[in-house]
Structures are given as C-alpha cells and as structure tokens.
C-alpha cells in the first residue's frame, strides 16, 4: 500500500472536514452582541457563512467583518426586515441551512400583574414573539425551496418559559409562547426535514440581564458578579454560573448535523435550576 503523502491541501481538507458547520449558511437575528454575537463567531469558526441581522449597526458591522460574514439592519418586529435578511443569505450563497432567531428584549413592563403597562407588553410581543414568528416563517420558506435538504431553526427562549418567578410577567409570556410555537412548527416542518428547537438560558450575564439587574437596584453589577450569583444560588453545579459561550455551544449543537434526530426540543442551559432544587442536596451527604 502506497504511503499517503501529507500536503498543505490535504491538511486544509482535513481541517474543513472537522468543522461542524462546513459551508452551511446561517442567519442570526440579534447577532451584534451577547449570545447572538458569540454564536455568530462560533458558527463561523466551524465553517458557516453567517448573516448578522440586528438594529445595532456599528456593532453588527464590526462582528460581521471579523468573521467574514454580512450585516443587515433588521428590526425583527417588521416582517419585511426579516425577509430581507433571509434574502441576503440567499443572494450571497444561494441557500439557507440555519436560522437562529435570537433577537429579544426585556422589560420593564411593570412588576405586578395589576399594574402592567400594556403598551410595553405589546412591544415585548412585537419583538420577542412576532419577531420569532417572522424568523421561522421566512427561514422555512427558504429551506423548503432548498431541494429538500432540510435545515435547522433555533429560537432563543428562556428558562422563564417553564418556571414561574424567574422574570416579569410580560417577558415570561413571550418566552412561553415561543416554546409552544416551536413545538407546533416542528410538527409541520418535519415533513421537509426542517428541525425546530429552542435554547433556554437562565442567568446568563448578557447585556439584557445586566440591564435588568441595574433596574432592580444592583447598579454596580458586573458579568462576573452575575455569574457568581447564579453559581451560588441557582445552579446544581456548585459555584458554576453560565456564560454566553455556554449558550452559543448549545446553539452550535442544534445547528449541526450531530443533532439530526432532535426536533421540537427545548434545550435548557440552566445548571439544572429548573429541574431540581439544590437546597435538598444535604440529603445526599454523609452525616458528620
């Protein structure tokens, strides 16, 4: 048997074959910062061609340039804007494989159900829920036309969607609605080999959570402070809090072919907080 000669071309071929999203095309809404930007960078590192859609033009353009992608201004509450983002991906690469519908906002809409400011609730729904609907709708259209290759649609939800008391009422409602929408869309789109899933973080030190902490009086909170607080209070993994990169890696898994038999699933990135109560861990310790 002839020995195989190692060449630069062979090395490059091996490198590309190990990239989990090699030559896949992705659109990420809310990709200018936070979870979206971390996912955009990770997707690109794994071979994807990424379109970042956001309203933060300067940040979005900078991230897109750094990963060899494209940026488009996109207010997800406007269906035409989301459709334009999808069309940019199609005109650039001719197909769409991944949609990460990540754009979202928090309150404040009022702490009590008795004093909810309904205009702000409607604004939350226009971005968090309707923006997600727009993303699924237009990504699915593009994927269905893509010669039955299927695709992966991922929606950013929240642990607040399944556990009360983690967020204000309006935000909680929008995220719970996303979970239902994902399950419903997965039923229809499975026929086209399109998978639809959620990622649901809890306590990730994103800009949104930092802003919420500051609204509730934690004026000097830092990302490390949030991480330590979650690690000590709301994680079964003692002392370990979530990072933005933890969520990005969850999105990468659902975007890749490694999750090819997973759909209608809500992947929680919460250190077990919504599944079990770490305060009961004393039961498993040997008595002193």
From TrEMBL:
Keyword annotations from UniProtKB, A to Z: Oxidoreductase
Any GO MF annotation of the entry: oxidoreductase activity
Signal peptide from the UniProt entry: none
Domain of life: Eukaryota
InterPro entries in UniProt: NAD(P)-bd_dom_sf, Sc_DH/Rdtase_CS, SDR_fam
Pfam families linked: adh_short_C2 (PF13561)
Coiled-coil positions: none
Family: Belongs to the short-chain dehydrogenases/reductases (SDR) family.
Protein name: Short-chain dehydrogenase reductase ATA1
Gene for this chain: LOC102659763
